[in-house]
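Homework-ish question, so no full write-ups if that breaks the rules, but can someone show me the predicted structure for this set?
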Amino acid sequence: VKYLITGISGFVGGHYLEYLALKRPGVKIVGIDLSRPDTSFLNKSFREKIKFHKGSLLDKKLITNVIKKTKPDYIINLASYSSVAYSWRHPAECFVNNTNIFLNLAEAVRNSKSKAKILSVGSSEEYGIVAPANIPLTEKSGLNPANPYAIARVAQENLSKIYSDGYRMPVICTRSFNHIGPRQKDIFVVSSFAKQIAEGKLLGRKKIICGNLGIIRDFIDVRDVVRSYDLLLRKGKPGEAYNVCSGEGHKLSEILAMLQKKAGTKLPVQIDRDLIRPVDNPEIVGSCKKLKRHVAFRKEYTLSRSLEDMLAHWEKRMR
Amino acid sequence: VKYLITGISGFVGGHYLEYLALKRPGVKIVGIDLSRPDTSFLNKSFREKIKFHKGSLLDKKLITNVIKKTKPDYIINLASYSSVAYSWRHPAECFVNNTNIFLNLAEAVRNSKSKAKILSVGSSEEYGIVAPANIPLTEKSGLNPANPYAIARVAQENLSKIYSDGYRMPVICTRSFNHIGPRQKDIFVVSSFAKQIAEGKLLGRKKIICGNLGIIRDFIDVRDVVRSYDLLLRKGKPGEAYNVCSGEGHKLSEILAMLQKKAGTKLPVQIDRDLIRPVDNPEIVGSCKKLKRHVAFRKEYTLSRSLEDMLAHWEKRMR
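A: Not a homework solution, just the prediction itself:
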């Protein structure tokens, strides 16, 4: 069995590799990304069998050649321009690049008559502005994308359905909610909290800088994310979209308090107005019933465990 | 007052020019298209004041320069790759070109800080596969685009909302239903009927070749279309989408019978299987209540009048 993972060098890509090394050590892996992946956390024998192609998914020739040569069974498309903030500054570039990444991949598969199953990774951003009455969001909730990034994700999902229903290519879509987990960059809120608290404990930081602590989000551990992706690839229904989420909502203030308790800190909080988004949903929580029903997904990481691992990651880096 | 019309040389562009010549003869007009417009049906003085730029909307530099130089008050974006059949053969090209046309235009307006009002022309194809219970379609009906062309139109409408709500640019969207009217090409069903019947009457044609006569569609005269576009530009709400339709459903067999009666022919009908689409909606009818309520639109062309004018057009061409 051969996997092709685009965007392999990112946060999710690294965890996908770790998952495969642990649970499916016999598979072959081909990766594409702009830079070489950090694989220091993998054992050497597994690390050595990853075949890496350096380049961009915007390069049609590259992706076509890779697919023709490697003949993958499964393709996980993690490559994207995924910053919402960037998409507001460069709407056309963000939209065009994200949809081109997907189209280049899908056309390469179609034109090479590959039978590969494709996981088209989307985002809870596709739901856009959400009425409180629609929480938890199910896959039948309306899509009202409210930024250029989210619009590209909706287009990608619509195109996926066309490739699946019209061209009979097995494409399975996700609407993935907020990720958490060790190694996540500190531009993401929970990882930023964990890092600041670790700094408070180990390096003498005196306060925590944060945005709006009142919003409620659905955080899912990246290790549950990659496991659900693998289940979806093997058992998901082509042409369908799946929420990938924990099904639980937590207020950011609650998460901050849990982290402080675990670290044994009592750092005061300072609100930075620049970290508050002009328009934001007070609550985003997904339903994972379809994921459970179709592919028998059960989450393995509790919020408590995820937060402990994130704290431990930052503390280890600081020691 | 200055108008910029992209895709000015097409069927709708020609009728827009005719409308302006008749109802708003004082305006200035700048047009862009791949080929020069046929303006033989306009009076000479009006014809001479149309400034034409030959080129593609895919050429960012061209459209940026035209907007900077001409400073239009109103922009009507008629340029598109609008064949559904072509979009199935070339999905990526159709999607990319249509969304790039719109983005190049919108970015040129944004970057030049133009205050132009933009009419973003969309399609009833955005509704996709429609449940009979949802007829007539209102602007609140769900969008389930079912071909690459329709997906690009949905993306364009979503992007229009972003430019309108996020960047405060006045963009008004249409979901335009099937057009009819004189000068329409005979690749469109009603014009094809009218042409074949005129051939029967004048050139001895013995039968009419057609597809599925049982489907019901909402046909609106192109002259009502362009008048509604002008009303929308002047009085429509930025960020909103409007059905542009007649609000009436007619079976194709009924339209064929009306045409034969008007022409005094009784040609037999032959079904061509190649003209029947693999997947098609039995009925597509829109509600034009929002268009009536927001911009006081009243349709001026009855179906009977449209069909007479189309027959007369083909008969004139044959004589």
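Now go work out the reasoning yourself. Hint: Chain B touches chain A through 26 residues (CB under 8 Å).
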